[in-house]
């Protein structure tokens, strides 16, 4: 069996080499090896590591390493000490909201430095299946979006749509473009049962009626209906608020949205709508007043702000490995409670003066972490809507608490089962006790040691496990890391630039 696949690999390499017009010696020179080694490889007489396959593929400009389309895994060797500087990338959640909001505009939307992640890729696949033209303009990840005159909703890419929860945010823009349409059920992270009813409640005043059919939402729009009074959101959710905002943007009257989220991605959406010519008042508060337009057809250029969740991920990486690094472009107004909590735990750091993000609004700072002796906080750690501790940042406190002296209680009240995934830290030597589906008790400090773990199906707990592996003695393997690529761009590679030893691989 081994000889069979080694022979097939050797034939692939030989054919690719000849296609490039190289001799065995020339390929050997590129690989810094001998001609006899290349000869053995091509005859199938040489065992090959995935690292060597990747090097050969790079030398021959051929995807020989893509012999398997199976899941991507990460091999982590620790313990790690990080050093250097790293910039926070733009917000994943703002990026996906802005992609959905681009459907409001009949003109060209250019988004700057968009997070090039799997969640964005899935949304682009959906948009392209509808007839939207999308194009990455340059290596800075600037993205151009041009909607067609008429969307081809009958051709929607259902496979891509089901792999992203963000598809639910198509409801707000589409209700103005179509009177009848279907959307596949939303997918994404496995975080328990999360009803879409708050979305439907927010959009009914605009005439939207949605019925659940087999595998999809069937939507009909009554154009005669319009909001007669302020819309009070039953849930102060980010995507619910964004859906209501997008519906209000193409309603020519004035819409008041109460109990609105004022979180970072909502603010980015508000600033984008303002660039489209929509009047949005109350940005950053829980009451938004929107005066919409009957039609939007403008060429607009917008730069979403930096991601506070990625900033927290990088802070946690530094804290868990007790490293001194500089994290630039941190959106401080969305990190203040997290930093105050860390200060209470004994975290030492310095930060620069504030400066403004490219969107012209969001306040940024540079943070330099210092070696710290952490202790458990006196009170439990729990999230709240902005300006409280961010719901998506809570899981990072599990791995931080694991290296702190004492006992920390985390209360993840929003999701039914996300806290359960944090108990995977016990496989690396952590002392994490599940009290109920929402609460975990973490005792520290922890001396992490390597283990092989299947990646949790929820984004933030998955990254928490990866960060703990950085601090673990020996070699760890994190299997099936697609969920991380949904929300982070090149996270492993960027951590490697700070001194981590993370090797991606696939099973052959």
Automatic annotation (TrEMBL):
Residues covered by the HTH cro/C1-type domain: 13-67
Pathway the protein takes part in: Cell wall biogenesis; peptidoglycan biosynthesis
One GO molecular-function entry: DNA binding
Subcellular localization(s) per the UniProt record: Cytoplasm
InterPro entries for this protein: Cro/C1-type_HTH, Enolpyruvate_Tfrase_dom, Enolpyruvate_Tfrase_sf, Lambda_DNA-bd_dom_sf, MurA_subfamily, RNA3'P_cycl/enolpyr_Trfase_a/b
GO terms under cellular component: cytoplasm
GO biological process, any: regulation of cell shape
Catalytic activity: phosphoenolpyruvate + UDP-N-acetyl-alpha-D-glucosamine = UDP-N-acetyl-3-O-(1-carboxyvinyl)-alpha-D-glucosamine + phosphate
Enzyme Commission designation: 2.5.1.7
Role this protein plays: Cell wall formation. Adds enolpyruvyl to UDP-N-acetylglucosamine.
Protein name: UDP-N-acetylglucosamine 1-carboxyvinyltransferase
Originating organism: Nocardioides cavernaquae
